[in-house]
């Protein structure tokens, strides 16, 4: 197992390198640059800025410099937030995104697994149908519709909760963003759990156990191990996308997370900020997928850990 | 095939979903021709009309509308009488009124061609009559005064096309890539899958934004961009299937017969992976439509003169408090479509599940 | 097989907890939560470039002159000044009570330091050219002369002398701009680029920086050393960026933000209905226009340009589409500028729309388009945003009325700006301009033939350039106004840009907040505002 993890981590290095390379050249070749404002700069000012940030060098050289800095843990200066470095921006945004994404993940898992199991236990029962419909809806309504609706109902209508802002992570400010983020994920998880558990429950050996009159909770526990495999398999990418922030949720609720850096960075051609977020997200994806694979192996020892 | 049909026929929600889907597709295809409004037609005087069956202009808006028109004619209006679909009113101005100004009436979306009944005070006072038009906007109008029903239906075509074509693109790439990797095995497989890993780790939002920024944006590009990021899951799934198929006897037999790899892939491997692939594709369509709506939220989705449900919803979400119908109409269509597709995908998955055979 | 009970209990507990959470709606006493349309990119006044930054910098720093809450020029660090008869030499007397937030006195040398700093090419200041009226500034900024050749001197700690290259009637106004704000030399020398960080930043304005959370807030507090600290009523301000206007309005409605500096134009009717007098519209210094690429036929033909301009229903765009957050524009300069008279106007404002259409058709026919001629197709290039898109769609519909077909080319903002800056070919492009000072020169210089960055359509009319040069050299304000008026008249006849709308300032102001007066400069320094508890 340890050997497997180490090997996978080693393999991750070329993957990350490829990600860095592809995204570096993609963003650099995009039209426009960080200093193209609605009001164009004087050519002298533009030339000076390009020189200051080394844009006057050949792209290949710039790439080598960037890699060198990255290896030292230096993400470079940000072009849209000139008073702070990209490293600092990431360090401040990550806890925000991880708090909201982490809570959303827990909520989605709780809701999704709970409802999915409940639904699978009584196929065609009321709960099953409700979950089927609810999950379908959860998957069909865009987040940017859910968020304003929640704001209007809980913030303006009932006046229970604040409509936005971070306020250093005050609990009341987390509720709506977490809900918005968790609902579609809960829908995906509920659907997956329901389908896969239902299949497992109809497998011959489980049916035999049922026929033998084994207590329900033991059968469920039995079936869950296998039934949760598909859920665990997607958990890595789900967790990665939740923990690294959502641009919709952060924009609509005014939260200082990572998700906005991503989109704003790309649209503002803030090269270093985009690269920083890309690298960070790639690391999350690689590591969390590895965790998910290990979890799968723990759930089902028959699964070989293939490289 | 028949087994699948029978299984689906027994599944009432799935039938319902299928029926709804067909209805939506048909409405989107035929509907715009029947609403009586062109999708791009702007009614400047009928901006943000609430949905309803009643024809516009409403009787209570005739007078303010006439006053607005009179202002442009540099005249004032009085003695307005609306009767039998006609309006009769008096125009007065300090100077003689040029009769040509009456063309403002038929140009206003509200009235028909005007007729002068009487000319008084050396042309400074005109008695005019004109038919009051009756236009209905079942689902209201948007911020530019365009009929929302027509636009929603036209948008539906685009959204459905995006859903189908982008899924098709993802399917084609994923199927080929996965089957080749799985069948080739060994180093080729490892190398091909490494590329998939890289693309997985490359955040797709970034990738799509870059694609859209790079090339001159347009519908085709959105299709390609979405297809280009959504084939990864498909490729992984097909590869896993192929890996297990390769061990099966009939493939071994084909190899022993000396069939070429391409033939084996095309004749034996790909057809045998189709079941799960079809299910995955059904579920990918709603995902793709939703992804386009996300791009629209960022302002990178389908653009004028074309529109999509996502674009309409993004605009409607911003007007939620002032004109909720701008969100409601396209959102209802989108949700109904996605819900149906999801139910259908689930049902197909159940119907195709080989384990069902044993029952 | 029963539903797992513990699960249900957890659900209920969650719901109860949800109901127990009290909203943190009421702000800490005395905190003014000020909506700002974007997050500042920097708090270094010499690197700044946006209006969002300008609002914060105006609270943090004080220039020689500054604005009050009516947008009027008032003494800042300078308590008095004299201008030499030739209009070239300005002598400022600095306040004895002017202090930095660490207690140091603000001295004339601080301004010499600041002006040399922003003009130093190594700094890469984006807006340094605003200061080019100062003698020697242009050469210093281009690296052609040493910093000490700049005509800014400090003969005594309280006396500052600035000499100009040529008389500039709007020069005092330039001194309120963020490019002319002072920075604390010792802090800049000690911290370098990091001098703007909370804890490092020493400023001389009514407020001092307390905290910055990117994309969340900039928190400032009253500066006890400020010379008028006793009159500053609001103890602290949190500047909150509002990237999504619809959700910002919701937060305002929920009492989480006390004022918004930008509003969604397409929602104005409903905003006015919901918030009444809290919606405050005012004049501002911006122009929304369509530029033609004059190198490309048929757009080199003035008849085509005039025809396209004639049929644009500016009132519909401004009132209906932008909800009154724009004003119809028939001139390049917006009304209300200093040292000017009412702008000349495009012909046809008062004529009937049908006459305008007839005229447009006949102009197109003369140019060889329309019935009997070729069809005219226009490629309209704009950067994507809801309002730009709706404007483009509506204008296309108006052009369709005279038989012109419009195709859209839409790109993201950076691509659009870079495309125009690079001077690449286009047909019609959306352009906009927010002026730095309320003088017609700041609008009309855009179309000068030698303005290679801001004149994407390559308009070059020697007569126009001559008028602009003559105006720049003219010391008599009335004669200067005449020259500029003639230049604008010429530009409106040539129509290289179609003026479509003038921007207006738009704000939501909570009833708790008093002292806000909309003004042309869009200045609302917090030191003049009051917040009721």
From TrEMBL, chain A:
Main localization, broad class: membrane
Organism in which the protein naturally occurs: Methylobacterium adhaesivum
KW Transmembrane helix (keyword) present: yes
One Pfam family matching this protein: BPD_transp_1
Protein name per the record: ABC transporter permease subunit
Keywords of the record: Cell membrane, Membrane, Transmembrane, Transmembrane helix, Transport
CDD domains on file: TM_PBP2
Keyword Isomerase: no
Stretches that traverse the bilayer: 12-30, 100-121, 133-154, 174-192, 228-253, 273-299
Domain ABC transmembrane type-1: 94-292
Cellular location(s): Cell membrane
Residues spanning the signal sequence: none
Membrane topology according to the record: Multi-pass membrane protein
Family: Belongs to the binding-protein-dependent transport system permease family.
PANTHER family referenced in this protein's UniProt entry, alphabetically: DIPEPTIDE TRANSPORT SYSTEM PERMEASE PROTEIN DPPB-RELATED
UniProtKB/TrEMBL annotation, chain B:
PANTHER family named in the record: OLIGOPEPTIDE TRANSPORT SYSTEM PERMEASE PROTEIN APPC, OLIGOPEPTIDE TRANSPORT SYSTEM PERMEASE PROTEIN OPPC
Gene3D superfamilies registered for this protein in UniProt: MetI-like (1.10.3720.10)
Record-linked CDD domains: TM_PBP2
Compartments it resides in: Cell inner membrane; Cell membrane
Membrane topology: Multi-pass membrane protein
InterPro entries registered for this protein in UniProt: BP-dependent_transpt_permease, MetI-like, MetI-like_sf, OppC_N
Domain of life: Bacteria
Protein name: Oligopeptide transport system permease protein OppC
Bilayer-spanning residue ranges: 160-183, 195-215, 323-344
Main location: membrane
Domain ABC transmembrane type-1: 156-345
Keyword match Protein transport: yes
Family to which the UniProt record says this protein belongs: Belongs to the binding-protein-dependent transport system permease family. OppBC subfamily.
Keywords per UniProt: Cell inner membrane, Cell membrane, Membrane, Peptide transport, Protein transport, Transmembrane, Transmembrane helix, Transport
Automatic annotation (TrEMBL), chain C:
A Pfam family this chain is assigned to: SBP_bac_5
Subcellular localization: Periplasm
Transmembrane stretches, start-end: none
Segment forming the signal sequence: 1-26
Gene3D superfamilies, per the entry: Dipeptide-binding Protein, Domain 1, Dipeptide-binding Protein, Domain 3, Periplasmic binding protein-like II
Keyword Cell inner membrane set for record: no
Domain Solute-binding protein family: 73-452
Keywords: Signal, Transport
Domain of life of the native organism: Bacteria
Similarity annotation: Belongs to the bacterial solute-binding protein 5 family.
PANTHER family: PERIPLASMIC BINDING COMPONENT OF ABC TRANSPORTER, PERIPLASMIC OLIGOPEPTIDE-BINDING PROTEIN-RELATED
UniProt protein name: Peptide ABC transporter substrate-binding protein
């Amino acid at each position: 197992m340890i050997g497997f993890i180490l090997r996978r981590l080693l393999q991750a290095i070329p993957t990350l390198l490829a990600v860095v390379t592809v995204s570096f050249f993609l963003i650099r070749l995009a039209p426009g640059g960080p200093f193209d404002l609605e009001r164009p700069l004087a050519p002298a000012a533009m030339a000076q800025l390009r020189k200051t940030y080394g844009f006057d060098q050949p792209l290949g050289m710039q790439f080598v410099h960037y890699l060198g800095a990255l290896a030292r843990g230096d993400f470079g200066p940000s072009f849209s937030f000139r008073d702070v470095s990209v490293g600092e921006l990431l360090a401040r945004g990550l806890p925000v995104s991880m708090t909201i994404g982490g809570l959303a993940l827990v909520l989605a898992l709780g809701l999704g697994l709970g409802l999915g199991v409940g639904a699978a236990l009584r196929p065609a029962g009321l709960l099953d149908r409700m979950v089927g419909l609810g999950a379908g809806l959860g998957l069909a309504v865009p987040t940017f519709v859910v968020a304003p609706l929640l704001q209007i109902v809980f913030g303006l209508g009932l006046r229970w909760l604040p409509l936005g802002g971070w306020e250093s992570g005050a609990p009341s400010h987390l509720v709506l963003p977490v809900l918005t983020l968790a609902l579609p994920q809960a829908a995906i998880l509920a659907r997956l759990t329901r389908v896969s558990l239902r299949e497992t429950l109809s497998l011959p050996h489980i049916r035999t156990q049922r026929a033998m009159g084994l207590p329900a909770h033991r059968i469920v526990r039995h079936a869950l191990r296998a039934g949760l495999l598909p859920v665990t398999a997607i958990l890595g990418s789900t967790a990665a996308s939740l923990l690294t922030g959502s641009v919709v949720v952060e924009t609509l609720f005014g939260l200082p997370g990572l998700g906005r850096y991503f989109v704003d960075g790309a649209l503002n051609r803030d090269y270093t900020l985009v690269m920083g977020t890309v690298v960070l997200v790639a690391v999350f994806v690689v590591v969390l997928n590895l965790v998910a694979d290990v979890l799968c192996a723990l759930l089902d020892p028959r699964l070989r850990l293939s490289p | 095939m028949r087994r699948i049909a029978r299984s689906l026929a027994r599944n009432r929600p799935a039938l319902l979903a299928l029926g709804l889907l067909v209805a939506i597709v048909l409405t989107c295809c035929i509907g715009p021709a029947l609403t009586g409004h062109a999708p791009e037609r702007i009614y400047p005087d009928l901006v943000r009309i609430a949905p309803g069956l009643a024809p516009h202009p409403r009787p209570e808006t005739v007078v303010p509308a006439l006053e607005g028109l009179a202002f442009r004619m540099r005249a004032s209006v009085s003695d307005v009488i609306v009767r039998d679909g006609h309006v009769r009113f008096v125009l007065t101005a300090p100077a003689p009124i040029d009769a040509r100004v009456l063309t403002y009436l038929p140009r206003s979306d509200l009235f028909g061609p005007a007729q002068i009944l009487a000319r008084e005070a050396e042309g400074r006072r005109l008695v005019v009559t004109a038919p009051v038009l009756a236009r209905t906007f079942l689902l209201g109008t948007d911020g530019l005064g365009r009929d929302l029903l027509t636009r929603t239906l036209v948008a539906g075509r685009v959204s459905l096309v995006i859903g189908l074509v982008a899924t098709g693109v993802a399917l084609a790439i994923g199927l080929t890539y996965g089957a080749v990797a799985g069948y080739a095995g060994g180093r080729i497989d490892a190398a091909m899958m490494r590329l998939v890993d890289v693309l997985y780790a490359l955040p797709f939002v970034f990738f799509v934004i870059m694609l859209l920024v790079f090339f001159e944006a347009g519908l085709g590009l959105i299709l390609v961009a979405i297809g280009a990021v959504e084939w990864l899951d498909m490729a992984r799934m097909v590869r896993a299937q192929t890996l297990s198929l390769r061990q099966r006897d009939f493939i071994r037999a084909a190899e022993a017969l000396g069939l070429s790899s391409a033939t084996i892939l095309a004749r034996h491997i790909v057809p045998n992976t189709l079941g799960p692939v079809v299910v995955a594709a059904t579920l990918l369509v709603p995902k793709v439509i939703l992804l386009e709506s996300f791009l629209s939220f960022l302002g990178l989705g389908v653009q004028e003169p074309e529109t999509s449900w996502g674009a309409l919803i993004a605009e409607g979400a911003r007007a939620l408090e002032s004109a909720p119908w701008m969100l409601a109409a396209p959102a209802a269509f989108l949700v109904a479509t996605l819900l149906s597709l999801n139910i259908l995908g689930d049902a197909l998955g159940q119907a195709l599940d080989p384990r069902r055979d044993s029952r | 097989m029963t539903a797992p009970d513990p699960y249900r209990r957890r659900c209920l507990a969650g719901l109860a907890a949800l109901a127990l959470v009290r909203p943190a709606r009421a702000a800490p006493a005395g905190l003014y939560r000020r909506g700002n349309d974007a997050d500042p990119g920097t708090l270094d006044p010499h690197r700044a470039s946006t209006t969002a930054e300008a609002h914060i910098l105006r609270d943090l720093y004080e220039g020689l002159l500054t604005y009050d809450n009516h947008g009027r020029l008032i003494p800042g660090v300078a308590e008095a000044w004299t201008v030499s008869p030739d209009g070239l030499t300005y002598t400022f007397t600095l306040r004895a009570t002017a202090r930095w937030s660490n207690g140091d006195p603000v001295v004339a040398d601080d301004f010499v330091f600041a002006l040399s700093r922003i003009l130093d090419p190594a700094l890469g200041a984006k807006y340094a050219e605003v200061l080019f009226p100062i003698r020697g500034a242009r050469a210093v900024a281009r690296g052609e002369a040493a910093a000490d050749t700049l005509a800014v001197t400090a003969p005594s700690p309280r006396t500052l002398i600035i000499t100009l290259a040529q008389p500039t009637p709007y020069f005092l106004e330039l001194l309120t701009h963020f490019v002319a704000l002072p920075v604390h030399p010792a802090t800049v020398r000690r911290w370098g680029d990091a001098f703007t960080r909370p804890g490092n930043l020493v400023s001389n304005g009514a407020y001092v920086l307390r905290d910055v959370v990117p994309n969340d807030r900039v928190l400032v507090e009253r500066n006890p050393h400020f010379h008028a600290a006793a009159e500053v009523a609001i103890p602290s301000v949190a500047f909150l960026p509002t990237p999504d206007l619809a959700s910002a309005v919701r937060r305002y409605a929920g009492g989480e933000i006390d004022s918004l500096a930008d509003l969604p134009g397409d929602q104005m009717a409903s905003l006015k209905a919901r918030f009444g007098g809290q919606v405050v519209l005012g004049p501002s210094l911006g122009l929304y226009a369509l530029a033609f690429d004059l190198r490309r036929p048929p757009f080199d033909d003035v008849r085509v340009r005039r025809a396209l301009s004639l049929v644009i229903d500016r009132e519909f765009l401004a009132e209906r589409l932008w909800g009154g957050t724009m004003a119809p524009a028939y001139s390049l300069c917006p009304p209300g500028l200093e040292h000017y008279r009412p702008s000349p106007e495009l012909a046809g404002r008062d004529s009937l729309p049908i006459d305008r259409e007839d005229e447009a058709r006949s102009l197109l026919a003369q140019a060889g388009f329309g019935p009997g001629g070729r069809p005219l197709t226009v490629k309209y290039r704009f950067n994507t945003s809801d309002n730009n898109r709706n404007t483009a769609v509506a204008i296309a519909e108006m052009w369709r009325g005279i038989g012109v077909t419009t195709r859209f080319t839409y790109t993201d903002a950076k691509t659009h700006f870079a495309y125009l800056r690079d001077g690449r070919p286009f047909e019609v492009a959306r352009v906009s301009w927010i002026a730095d000072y309320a003088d017609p020169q700041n609008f009309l210089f855009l179309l000068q033939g030698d303005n290679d960055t801001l004149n994407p359509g390559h308009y070059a009319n020697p007569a126009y350039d001559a008028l602009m040069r003559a105006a720049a050299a003219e010391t008599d304000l009335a004669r200067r106004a005449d020259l500029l008026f003639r230049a604008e008249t010429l530009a409106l006849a040539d129509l290289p840009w179609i003026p479509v709308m003038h921007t207006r300032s738009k704000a939501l102001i909570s009833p708790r907040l008093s002292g806000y007066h909309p003004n042309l400069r869009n200045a609302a320094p917090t030191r003049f505002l009051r917040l009721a508890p």
